[in-house]
Design a protein that fits this description.
With 184 residues, this protein is an alpha/beta fold. The chain has a single domain (3-183), classed as Rossmann fold (3-Layer(aba) Sandwich). Helices cover 45% and strands 19% of the residues. It contains four helices and six strands, in the order βββαβαβαβα. The chain has a six-stranded mixed β-sheet with strand order 2-3-1-4-5-6, with helices on both faces. Bound molecules: guanosine-5'-triphosphate and magnesium ion (MG). Guanosine-5'-triphosphate binds next to loops. Guanosine-5'-triphosphate binds at residues 10, 12-18, 40-41, 103-104, 106-107, 133-136. This is small monomeric GTPase.
Length: 184
């Protein structure tokens, strides 16, 4: 795999920027450079906006961040998943490279979104899920990026595999088509 474009989305103040300190990951002994796109949340970036759509098209993978103390930020992640699924052409067989991140795990006394809710959202939308504390635990954030890179790789491999099968089918049909014309 040669790098990847990753977009980090979520409402304001959930810890998107805080999550970005690690942006090289080592996969199969090789350092992968990740192009990360993060910007302050604004109305322009709401899930239904044109700017959001543009970012979705650019990205190979998605980190969707909410704060476990902010219910609205969790609801936005649900909407972002819908936007991503409806604007990218996923073929159905590949794993969609989305990681849902519940941040600020250290603030458990102010928690309003249960871990189970995050896990359930991930399960029902076929995404990965982590709860982290970006400000405190660098390793948990690293895991997020590793998980995402794995998924991007898997989805690229299944696309390649399908292209390979299509190629074989095409050349086989060419052979048969030739036979048919030969026998005329
Ligand atoms: N307690 C705690 N605070 C955090 C954590 N992650 C981020 N923060 C704090 O939350 C605030 C917002 O973090 P940012 O990373 O700037 O949030 P953002 O999502 O990039 O926000 P915008 O750029 O405004 O959209 C900062 O004060 C961070 O220090 C965390 O895991 N725990
Ligand atoms: Mg930011």
């Amino acid at each position: 795999m040669d790098g990847a474009n990753i977009v980090v989305l979520g409402t304001d103040n959930v810890g998107k920027s805080e999550s970005l300190y690690s942006h090289t990951v080592v996969v199969d002994g090789r350092e992968q450079s990740l192009n990360l796109w993060d910007a302050p949340y604004s109305q322009d970036l709401s899930p239904e906006s044109f700017m959001c759509e543009k970012r979705v098209q650019w990205a190979d993978g998605f980190v969707l961040v909410y704060s476990i103390c902010d219910r609205a930020s969790f609801n936005t992640v649900t909407r972002l998943i819908q936007t991503i699924k409806s604007s990218k052409d996923y073929l159905g067989f590949e794993k969609i490279p989305i990681v849902i991140v519940g941040n600020k795990r250290d603030l458990h006394h102010r928690r309003t979104v249960l871990s189970e809710e995050g896990r359930l959202l991930a399960l029902s939308s076929d995404c990965q899920f982590y709860e982290v504390s970006a400000a405190e635990n660098y390793h948990s954030v690293l895991m997020v990026f590793h998980g995402l890179v794995d998924r991007i790789r898997e989805s690229r491999m299944s696309v390649k595999k399908l292209a390979g099968i299509k190629g074989i089918v095409k050349s086989m049909s060419a052979v048969f088509a030739r036979r048919r014309t030969d026998s005329l």
